[in-house]
Write a structure and sequence with these properties.
Four copies of one chain form a homotetramer.
Chain A lengths: L6 H18 L8 H16 L7 H5 L3 H24 L4 H11 L3
Helix pairs in contact in A: 2-4
Chain lengths: 105, 105, 105, 105
């Protein structure tokens, strides 16, 4: 899990990059939470595709090419999830932490 | 975006909590990347539901109750995304950063 | 595949029932194609859930209870797909037929 | 809703074509209900994409090009839904009919 050590700072930088990314593309006006939730679905649909014909065992040992494709799709899902959370003024990490503590066992 | 300031440390703690969470529930053996990608879809399906009959404008002004429901669903998506990334040894933040830099404008 | 023999007539009757169903619930005004595509996602999210922790082999031999739950979710997906196609004036069967003939091998 | 008049016969023919389609592609062995439910998600993800940045009003008046793209995606969803139902020995139309009659108002 190396790389996560830059997490806190990294997450804030990522959010700044995201804002620039979105504004440059002039899509700010389209970014209602409703639309972002739809975009998230599209990305998750792409993420699941590489796994659909694999056995569970095969999904544990992806080829380098498929692993990279999945890595990019996971990134897209993370980006849209951050955009959606941000739009709704939700602190993603805190929300995840709260969820783990209240989830039934 | 307060709360993100604990990001780096928070993300690592979250991952530790996630591991404990999953192990306690004895689902470790089911957590193939294939299965986790499916669980992610189920969570995104729940996340989109509160938005489906709303206008875009309404989706910007959720009731307190709906906002809290959405917050929990967003958290669930984040948790499964982290679990999936972890299973594939993918650094989520780095992947998102890389994606922003290579994405076509 | 018994039961399909009532297909042609059955499909038309189903559409009439769908119209009554939707009108009675007063949701006609919400049924934009955009919203219906979101509702479809929610239903597919529910459909995938019973399968997510199963092996492929287990998914071929569902318990009676799970089979009935899946049957209902499949029905929901079919209903929203018909509603969406109808809203867009698309003939579902013809579209599927055309797709099979033009799909690359 | 013209075109539906060939429904009953059309649906049976469609199923025969589907079998040939699947067998020719040699994917028969992969078609567990679990995998087919995943493929369905991928197709629904593609179906929702054309709608994600549109307003509801725009989604009612698609360009000819987008309408054709959506028509193909709807067809793909229908094909995988039929394949899944078939694999589970579920009569799609009957399931939809039953669902409409038992659904709460």
């Amino acid at each position: 899990m190396k790389g996560y050590s830059q997490g806190a700072q990294g997450l804030e930088e990522l959010i700044v990059q995201l804002e620039a990314f979105v504004e440059e593309r002039g899509r700010v006006q389209f970014n209602s939470p409703k639309n972002l939730s739809m975009a998230l679905v599209g990305e998750v649909g792409e993420l699941i595709e590489p796994f659909q014909w694999l056995t569970q065992e095969q999904s544990r040992h992806l080829s380098a090419e498929t692993h990279e494709a999945v890595r990019q799709e996971i990134a897209d899902v993370q980006i849209y999830l951050l955009l959606l959370a941000r739009k709704l003024d939700i602190d993603l990490l805190q929300a995840a932490r709260d969820r783990l503590q209240t989830s039934p066992r």
